[in-house]
Amino acid sequence: MAAIKKNKDEMSFMDHLEELRWHLVRIAIVILLLSVVFLVYPQFIFDKIILAPKSPDFITYKLFCDLGERFNISGLCILH
User: Fold this and answer.
1) What is the 8-class DSSP label of residue 68?
2) N or C: which terminus of the chain carries fewer CB neighbours within 10 A?
3) Pairwise CA distance, residues 78 & 15, whole Å
4) Rounded distance between C-alpha atoms, residue 80 and residue 25, angstroms
């Protein structure tokens, strides 16, 4: 009987579990770091990221306002 050759690219079940473990560890580290950032700078996160589109100087707000004025569509710009 000929011996079965294993491809070097093939991984065993335990190798797959090891890869999965390291992916999960990296995910947990990223979640932990982002949680710390969100807890340290909550005002910035809410004002500049989450609630930014309500601000008149936000880029898409300006774009829709200009489009509304150009095509004479009311309702795209709240201030005008």
Assistant:
1) H
2) N
3) 57
4) 51
Enter the pTM of the model: 0.54
- Whether 72 contacts 66, CB under 8 Å: no
Both tokens assigned to 4: 């079965």
Residues 6 or more apart from 54 whose CB is under 8 A from it? 61
pLDDT digits (tens, 9 = 90+) for 16-75: 999 999 999 999 999 999 999 999 999 988 888 888 877 778 888 888 888 888 888 877
Cβ partners under 8 Å of residue 53, min gap 6 = 60, 61
> Kindly report the CA angle at 63 between 57 and 64, in degrees rounded to 5?
105
